Structure formats: C-alpha cells, structure tokens
Amino acid sequence: MAIKRIHHVAYRCKDAKETVAFYRDLLGMDFQLAIAENEVPSTKEPDPYMHVFLDAGMGNVLAFFEIPNSPEMGRDENTPAWVQHIAFEVESMDELLASKEKLEANGVKVLGPTDHTIFKSIYFFDPNGHRIELAANTAKPGMLGELKRVAPDMLDEWARTKKAPKHADWLHSGGDFKGAGE
C-alpha cells in the first residue's frame, strides 16, 4: 500500500452553516462542496446529514458533518482539551500574529503565541469546541534532522518508562540547540 495523501479529515459540527462561515471568513478556507443525504451511504441507516468540505490549502481538505438527529455533540471527557486539535501551518510569524489579531477582533479568545522552538503557535476553539492551532515554522538548520534522528530512541525510552526522554529537551527548555556531533 502506498498512501498518496490525506483525502480529507472529517469532524462533527453543531451547525454546518456557522462552521463554514467560521473557517471561510476567519481562516480563509474556501468552501468547496456540500453533500447531504437522508440515508448514510455506507451503512444505509436513515440518518439525515450535511457534510461540508473546506480547502485547507495544498490539497488538504477539512470536512464536517452536521447530524441533527444524534444526541448533542460532546467531547471525550477523559482526554484533556489541549490534546485533540487540528493544526494548520501559516506562512510566517507576521501571518500568525495577523491571524491572532483578526480572530480576537471577531471575539475569539486566543492563547499564545507559544514558542515550541521549531515553530510558534496560537490556539483557539472553533464554534464546535474543536481546538485549533495555527503554527509558523521557526526551526533553525539541523533541528528537524536532529529530531528525526533521536525519535526512535525517544519512543523506545518512553515505551519503557512513560517519562519524557531528554533527547530533545532543548525544544522547550530555552537552551541552545546543539545538533548531533556539536
């Protein structure tokens, strides 16, 4: 099997029209198409839905389902709100800061920017309660290569200890990056 790319990622929404307006007007995503049926094609269940698709850039598609006959939408209460999120890349720090300003001007509460060393991010919630991250890359040469190099060892150590390995603690420590061999 050879995965070509993610075709689309789908989430539930409370109101399809409100969701499209949020992503279109505040995040600049083009509303691509809508599919509505009274029966689920895969299961044949009688369950009306509206399925909307938005262009998240570079062939990435973000989709939402409004399913009015299901119980009210909630979230996984056993998972902290910061864990499950959708992250989108923006072109630059200037664009990240302009996005923050636009969101706040439209009444959206925004956290950040948070410095992750290889990128800086802002965080906010969409009208459905989904946490959204906008990120601007800030990695210096060698950083991503070093993270890839230590990833298998970090994963193995985590699997054994369930404690954060120190292989890449320069990310959030404020310390200087020293790549392999430095």
From TrEMBL:
Signal peptide: none annotated. It holds the Pfam family Glyoxalase. Its cofactor is Fe(2+). Keywords: Aromatic hydrocarbons catabolism, Dioxygenase, Iron, Metal-binding, Oxidoreductase. PROSITE patterns: EXTRADIOL_DIOXYGENAS (PS00082), VOC (PS51819). Residues 5-137 form the VOC domain. Belongs to the extradiol ring-cleavage dioxygenase family. This is Glyoxalase. The lineage of its organism: Bacteria, Pseudomonadati, Pseudomonadota, Gammaproteobacteria, Alteromonadales.
